Amino acid sequence: MTVTKINTASVHRNVAFAQGTLVDPGRRLMFIGGQNGVNSRGVVVGDDTLSQTRQALRNLLAVLAEVGATQENVAKMTVHLTENADFGQAFAASASEWGQHPTAITVLRVAGLANPDFLVEIDAVAAL
Hints:
Elements: E1 3-6, E2 20-23, E3 29-36, H1 49-65, E4 74-82, H2 87-98, E5 104-110, E6 120-127
Helix pairs in contact: 1-2
């Protein structure tokens, strides 16, 4: 296994993420830049957090697929949500698109992103 999810009983456990991840020695790391809720033509897919988060995660999965990787290879994700983003919708999208592969996640509330229409941006580190 390339990435081992770490969860300890001495820290609150959340089904949405792992408390830590461990990457096996000698693995290559892939750094995936911020993915937004835009389709392949660069068009923002909607004005709501649910649709933008789903698309951002689909984009992330597409980048992983280019090197034969899946969400199981992701060791760390950072989710940036704007002040206008709906936290609940972001987690709902994550549950439906990401599946049962929680990883170490940091969620940040930010004032804004590069495009004022963006509500979410997700970057990740994967171990191959």
